[in-house]
Design brief:
The structure holds 2 protein chains of 2 kinds.
Chain A lengths: L12 E2 L5 H11 L30 E6 L14 H8 L6 E3 L5 E3 L2 E6 L5 E6 L13 H12 L14 E8 L2 E6 L6 H4 L14 H6 L7 E7 L3 E6 L12 E6 L3 H10 L4 E4 L2 H7 L3 E7 L3 E6 L9 H10 L2 H9 L3 E3 L22 H10 L6 E8 L6 H13 L3 E8 L1 H9 L5 E6 L5 H9 L6 H4 L4 H12 L3 H17 L4 E13 L2 E2 L16 E2 L3
Parallel strand pairs in A: 2-11, 16-17, 16-18
Antiparallel strand pairs in A: 1-13, 3-4, 5-6, 6-8, 7-8, 9-10, 10-11, 12-19, 13-19, 14-18, 14-19, 15-19, 20-21
Helix pairs in contact in A: 6-7, 8-10, 9-11, 15-16
Chain B lengths: L1 H22 L1 H26 L4 H6 L8 H11 L5 H13 L5 E2 L4 E2 H36 L4 H15 L2 H16 L15 H35 L2 H8 L4 H38 L5 H10 L3 H29 L1 H5 L1
Antiparallel strand pairs in B: 1-2
The chains are: A alpha+beta, B mainly alpha.
């Protein structure tokens, strides 16, 4: 087994060996982009920029294919991939993430935190208006955050604002938040779409049919079960958008999406299955973007026999992550540790058993009193994403080498989520969302007061303390070190077994330019996209 | 005495009325249809509840684990899940009877509004498929029957078998991919157009799915036609007609086919159920926003009212088509009218 050197994970890039890149080069030259990007550089790849005036197409109506209908138009409670992506283009947040997932100004032009870390002040951009023409003021921010914290709203971001004790409008364009504990992740948390700013006097029911945001696009038309169309917001505070309309069209079948791309009926679609991306071929450019989302074997240390660290370590030393990646995802991804964001990337080479070590695994088992083997059971999702069952089967075969008999409970996604949410499992083959900020990613899982801690099944005073330090530390470098310590701790205690992070494939037809795919699957790049003649 | 007589006569009269009602085929069928619909309603209702998860986990996914008990209570009340099952059932059924099919929080539309958009799509697909099936099946069946066991019979039966044997989702995916890749023809990717919006595009979008579905249904149509034609041809009245000098063409169309059509009509009516099921698959592959997609998307979000009401609409459709089939073959076959 060759060792996998730890390499920084690059941003999205064109797929190189599969022919699409060559054709993409043709597109690129038309779009007057430096030909150098066709060599397969590891820069975050965009589908061309700096489009000369003349090449801009007259028709600026872009169509994105989605496999299912948007399920919610209220940003505070939307969690579905399709819904969050549409809403990201309609509503604004105080801060935003740029292409490299760095926190940058959004509705707030700048912000500061007091020396004791307990007062955060946001200075709002002036002259921002909602679609209905009313101006954005500090009152809107206060009302939105108070609503998110209200249990009646059932907002998904409520837990992210847990440190916010009170919030007030100091003047028309200044918002002050008083925190109960220091929270350096706050500026990253308010960048999430679930923390969108709505008008203070918003009638939520009305907003579901007539969204009133500050984003680059507003809702123009919705045909239930069929399509949703956005149109450019001429009063958008930022640059762009260049597109006139973006239609999100429901095409449930992935192979039908492939056909639609080939025939040019739609301009853009995303896939997580490398096989599908491979079948598209001519005239379609594929961006391959490493994802923050990570594949993991979740262990619940609350359950016997996983409460014994030696059993967990035995699992960690037996499982060959590279093999799981190769056999389940055809190698389309990278072996990762706990943190997948570029700024806090864990080094999978530094874990206790970077390569499988069966002797050591057997020693751990003997120490735990299981030299004659043991039986375990894992839940696996049968649908939802393409690699789950294959991951489970590979792990099952690997564990059999040391006498661990893993049975797989393959469940339809509804039952899987039910069991997962109720923490009704010992092991789970899972795919969890990552976040640019390390505290947002794992604070809710591994802090003993985190709202997912029961599901995570592990807690310790040491972790609690580290997470607290991480939130209090304002120096970036020192903060990064704390999370590195957390990463090492998680691996050393074999709390979970982190496997790999896959790619997302963004298919763009010829003529789509300026779009950037992001590691958090956000489609905010639509505001920069433009259609060019080809 | 009079008192007794009165009492005697009343039940007799009532019984007679009831008896004649019960024996009236129309009433009997209507009662049967209502029973069927009620059975479907209960079955869907129970099956949906037996599925793991609810609308909260469907809407929030794993984020549901992060909801506090307070938030959960709010949501349960919002989705109406805090009511006892029996109350949920009869509230829904009561609403349906008064024309209120429920509300979808996902689309912010009533199920009735959604159904008014999706029902025509599925109906059009089913009707076009039936047409395709009859246009292929009947001539092919007659061709086969014209000389049993000859080459043309094998050809006809072979095509019929192919229609039965090729899984239609496979054929559909193949056709869709082929047309897009080779000719760049992909009307179904352009977003659904209703006939009154853009008839030409609409027909293009309906072409491939109705061909695929129609081809599958053409097989049983063909076989039924063949058998029926062979049977009718051997009957006495055909020999009589022949002897009377009826020209062969007239004999074939108005004597043989007319009589052979009775089982074909019955069979086509029965195939309608299959078509509604097949339409779900076709709508999925050819991206048509019909009843099938409405049910599937409702299922994904565990929107009970959407699934229950839509399935009930589909069942109603099925029942109506069966009643119509009955009427139609009474019209074709005068002998049925007699009883």
């Amino acid at each position: 087994m060759t060792s996998t050197p730890h390499t920084p994970r690059p941003g999205s890039r064109l797929r190189s060996p599969r022919g699409a890149a060559l054709r993409a080069c043709a597109v690129f030259s038309v779009a007057a982009l430096a030909l150098a990007s066709c060599g397969g550089s590891s820069e975050p790849a965009e589908s061309g920029d700096e489009v000369p005036e003349a090449a801009v197409a007259e028709d600026q109506d872009l169509v994105v294919a989605l496999t299912t209908d948007v399920d919610n138009l209220l940003p505070w409670t939307a969690t579905q991939f399709q819904a969050t992506n549409v809403l990201r283009n309609i509503y604004g947040t105080l801060t935003e993430l740029d292409h490299d997932l760095e926190v940058v100004p959004g509705l707030a032009e700048d912000w500061e935190i007091s020396d004791d870390g307990l007062t955060a002040t946001f200075h709002l951009r002036e002259g921002v208006t909602f679609f209905d023409g009313t101006e954005l003021t500090a009152e809107d921010v206060v009302a939105s955050f108070e609503a998110i914290q209200d249990p009646d709203t059932a907002a998904a971001a409520a837990t992210n604002l847990a440190s916010v004790e009170s919030i007030e409008a100091t003047d028309d364009h200044t918002v002050t938040m008083n925190l109960s504990t220091p929270d350096t992740a706050l500026f990253s948390k308010v960048a999430l779409g679930n923390a969108a700013i709505l008008p203070a006097d918003a009638d939520l029911e009305e907003l579901e049919t007539e969204p009133n945001g500050t984003g680059p696009f507003s809702l123009s038309e919705r045909v239930a079960n069929d399509s949703l169309t956005l149109e450019a917001n001429p009063d958008y505070w930022g640059e762009g958008p260049q597109l006139d309309t973006v239609e999100f069209r429901v095409i449930p079948d992935e192979s039908a999406i492939v056909s639609a791309l080939q025939a040019g009926s739609v301009h853009m679609a995303t896939f997580d299955d490398p096989l599908v991306a491979d079948t598209i071929g001519a005239g379609v450019e594929i961006l391959e973007t490493p994802q923050l989302t990570y594949h993991v074997l979740q262990l619940r240390a609350d359950e016997e026999p996983l409460d014994d660290v030696n059993v967990r370590r035995a699992l960690a030393c037996t499982i060959d992550r590279q093999e799981v990646l190769d056999s389940a995802a055809m190698g389309a991804g990278e072996v990762v540790g706990p943190f997948t964001s570029p700024a806090h990337l864990s080094d999978p080479g530094s874990r206790p058993c970077p390569e499988p070590d069966l002797d050591r695994a057997e020693e751990y088992l003997a120490e735990a009193g299981y030299e004659d083997g043991l039986e375990l059971s894992a839940i696996v999702m049968s649908d939802g994403y393409s690699t789950a069952v294959a991951e489970g089967e590979t792990i099952q075969a690997q564990l059999a080498q040391v006498g661990i008999d893993l049975s797989l409970e393959v469940l339809e996604s509804g039952s899987y989520v039910d069991r997962w949410v109720d923490a009704d499992f010992t092991l789970a083959v899972a795919r969890n969302a990552g976040n640019p900020d390390p505290d947002v990613t794992y604070g809710r899982y591994f802090r003993s007061d985190g709202n997912f801690n029961e599901v995570a099944g592990y807690r310790s005073d040491a972790l609690d303390e580290l997470f607290e330090q991480g939130l209090a530390e304002t120096d970036e470098e020192a903060r990064a070190e704390i999370y590195e310590e957390i990463s090492d701790y998680l691996e050393e205690q074999a709390v979970w077994i982190w496997l790999f992070a896959g790619y997302e494939y963004t298919a763009l037809t010829e003529g789509v330019s300026g779009y950037t795919a992001m590691a958090n699957s956000s489609m905010q790049g639509l505001r920069e996209a433009v259609l060019v003649d080809h | 005495m009079a008192h007794v007589t009165k009492n005697h006569r009343m039940p007799q009269k009532k019984g007679a009325v009831l008896h004649s009602l019960r024996s009236s085929p129309t009433v009997r069928r209507l009662v049967g249809a209502l029973g069927t619909l009620f059975g479907v309603a209960i079955t869907v209702f129970v099956m949906l509840r037996a599925l793991p998860g609810d609308q909260i986990t469907a809407a929030y996914g794993i984020e549901a684990a992060g909801l506090t008990e307070e938030q959960r209570e709010t949501l349960r009340a919002y989705y109406g899940l805090d009511q006892p099952l029996i109350v949920q059932f009869f509230t829904w059924l009561g609403n349906v009877v008064t024309g209120n099919l429920g509300y979808s929080s996902r689309t912010n539309q009533s199920v009735l509004e959604m159904t008014l958009l999706s029902l025509p799509v599925t109906l059009q697909l089913a009707v076009l498929s039936i047409l395709v099936a009859l246009l292929i099946g009947i001539p092919l069946g007659m061709l086969s029957a014209s000389r049993p066991n000859a080459a043309r019979d094998w050809l006809g039966q072979g095509i019929g078998l192919a229609g039965l044997g090729v899984p239609n989702f496979l054929l559909a995916t193949f056709l869709l991919g082929l047309a897009a890749q080779v000719w760049g023809f992909n009307p179904n990717g352009l977003g659904y157009a209703s006939p009154w919006e853009n008839l030409w595009l609409n027909l293009q979008q309906m072409m491939m799915p109705s061909l695929v579905l129609g081809f599958a249904v053409a097989a049983p149509v063909m076989r039924t036609t063949r058998t029926a034609v062979l049977e009718v041809r051997s009957l006495d009245f055909i020999r009589t007609a022949k002897a009377k000098g009826v020209p062969p063409r007239r004999l074939r169309w108005s004597h043989i086919l007319r009589n052979a059509l009775v089982p074909v009509v019955t069979m086509t009516g029965m195939q309608f159920g299959f078509l509604l099921g097949g339409a779900v698959v076709m709508e999925q592959i050819f991206s048509l926003p019909g009843l099938g997609r409405q049910v599937l998307l409702g299922m994904n979000q565990q929107e009970y009212a959407v699934v229950q009401s839509t399935v009930l609409v589909i069942a109603l459709l099925f029942v109506i088509v069966n009643l119509l089939t009955d009427l139609l073959y009474r019209k074709i076959d005068p002998r049925v009218r007699a009883d």
